[in-house]
Amino acid sequence: MELIVFDLDGTLLNAQQRISPYTEETLRLLGERHIAYTVATGRTLHASKACLEGHNFLLPHVYKNGVVIWDPQLSGYTHHTLLTPEEINAVLKSFALHPVTPFIFTVEDDDVHAVYHPPVRSASCKHFLHELSDNRGLPLLPLSALPDNARITNISALGDGEAIKAIGDELQAYEHLVAYFGEGLYNAGAYWMDIHHSAASKGGAVELLKRELGFERIICFGDGDNDASMFALADESYAPENAIDEIKAVATAVIGHHDQDGIARFLRQRFEL
């Protein structure tokens, strides 16, 4: 029994951050054939809702690069990998040296996300603030209001490439932290960053789903360095044409571009849909 796992941005979604009609029909055909599929993304649950609703993603979802697993049947998180206060302090000290605002994501008692942040320090950070508020509907609170016992899943940022890379280099000194970063798909000239505990990864979360749900094989699709752990455990792994070279190099094959329904077109051939 196989489980297909999709990354979202740069993979299953098009340039408008949506599932195209062709891909939507392909997912429907997979469902008719009882071929199981789910997502493993760097996004939060809230940032994914608009593009996943109505597409029958019924199995547990992997969010924030494996930090949390959400079960839509239970309407709740089943697994968390959280950052410690010491790790948070190390990250905040690094950000304080650069003109980039850290946005601290928490899981509240009701399984709803909240975001805490210090004063915004650049135009890119302001853009990210508005995206969180306007498009994702997340509560935005001052860093001073962060509870001492907060359950912190990750820290994200958007900023100048040089500053983001410098923060990433500094955080390499901490063995229990992982910092992914790269040029923004939807914000030209800006770089994104996501920091979480090293115990969390897409690969680890997908391995957990494979074991708990009883699947025998994993087929995955992804385009970025945060997909590498998932590619390493998969029986088949496919990178769209737009993927970074490092992911293309370890993929079973390179397929069509994400903005040209590359994943859906491959699936129709692979499964004769």
Automatic annotation (TrEMBL):
Keyword set includes Membrane: no
Transmembrane segments: none
Keywords in alphabetical order: Hydrolase
Keyword flag Secreted: no
Pfam families according to UniProt: Hydrolase_3
GO MF: magnesium ion binding; phosphatase activity
Stated name of the protein: HAD family hydrolase
Organism placement in taxonomy: Bacteria, Pseudomonadati, Pseudomonadota, Gammaproteobacteria, Oceanospirillales
